[in-house]
Amino acid sequence: MTVINTVTQPAEAAGSSTYRELSIFGDVFERVRAQYVTPPNEEQLIENAINGMLTSLDPHSSYMNAKDAEDMRTQTRGEFGGLGIEVTMEDELVKVITPIDDTPAARAGVLAGDFISKIDGQDVRGLKLEDAVEKMRGAVNTPIKLTLIRKGADKPIELTIMRDIIAVKAVKSRVEGDVGYLRVISFTEKTYDDLEAAIAKIKEEVPADKLKGYVLDLRLNPGGLLDQAINVSDAFLERGEVVSTRGRNEDETRRFNATPGDDVDGKPVIVLVNGGSASASEIVAGALQDLRRATVVGTRSFGKGSVQTIIPMGDAGALRLTTALYYTPSGKSIQGTGITPDITVEQPLPPELQGKLETAGESSLRGHIQGQSETDQGSGSSAYVPPEAKDDVQLQYALELLRGQKTDPSFPANPEKAELKK
């Protein structure tokens, strides 16, 4: 979960012994700079030293140089210069999952299932997926040449495409017969606005008397901005505390409350979570679960219950520093434990993924902050979601609950039985 801090405040002065240690660091740096067998990159040495200090605190604190800081800002804005394709890695090639409608890639004729073998003439074999994506992004109105391998084509296809602004939708939605399906992909600056638009579209397509309820899918959602998590939670609530954060001092506790007005008019809600649901998505699931506004279905979430503040530094860099832990309305910390669903529904894995998919969560990360309720059971679970809705056991279970084809004591959720701080 991320908080953007636009004001740089002076840190408390360190003690004299600390400055003596810093003097030793300076001496070591000078020795390395002057005597190492090959001349080192001094800027990189210092950056690595800073990151070494921060990563010794916890896995989520880090220093971002100017480029990394700008990449982070791009992600939170939900816009970047690029082509408009969703991709994955398969057989060492970049595979196009889908071109996004009305983007440069779609207009140029890139198709789902195409394999990208070269980017600007460079073979993608040996590249990590994130490196390939980085090469495809770039300044607006700059060209990029892709070499595609397409099933049924006699030879590779070469396309030159002009990059454009790509607006990433934070929410995808559709109607599943008589149920509204809302998938929140990440918590960027646009998430709540996208959610409002998606709910309005579902209401247009399905009359209120026919609509059974909503599925809010937070699976594979890694988190994002705190304010957006609060706004998304508020969309389904009339009242109550959404989340609180507590820093190192008691006076740093902050509470965030819902405002009147339920965007889905009190319709039943089922929240889907799995081991890929982390941070801001756990805030939403925890709030709707504790306030008994929704029934949570799936498997245990990742368990990242810490708040990172982004602090601007010199030369356009930034410090990402863990400054607080967050707590659900009942006062529970999710750190290292995650959200336990009201109804656990395991997602079967296809044979080719069995034994290969990571299931560990925050509690398995080296150096993670120990959660107040953390146990040997830890956090996390499988993060697999089938590509086809018909094969998605967790989604189908939620749809059957909403349609009355399945029953469970925890559904529908009853706000009168909200679990609040004692």
UniProtKB/TrEMBL annotation:
The keyword DNA repair does not apply. It comes from the Bacteria. One of its GO terms (cellular component) is outer membrane-bounded periplasmic space. It is an enzyme of class 3 (hydrolase). Keywords: Hydrolase, Protease, Serine protease. GO terms for molecular function: serine-type endopeptidase activity. Belongs to the peptidase S41A family. This is Carboxyl-terminal processing protease.
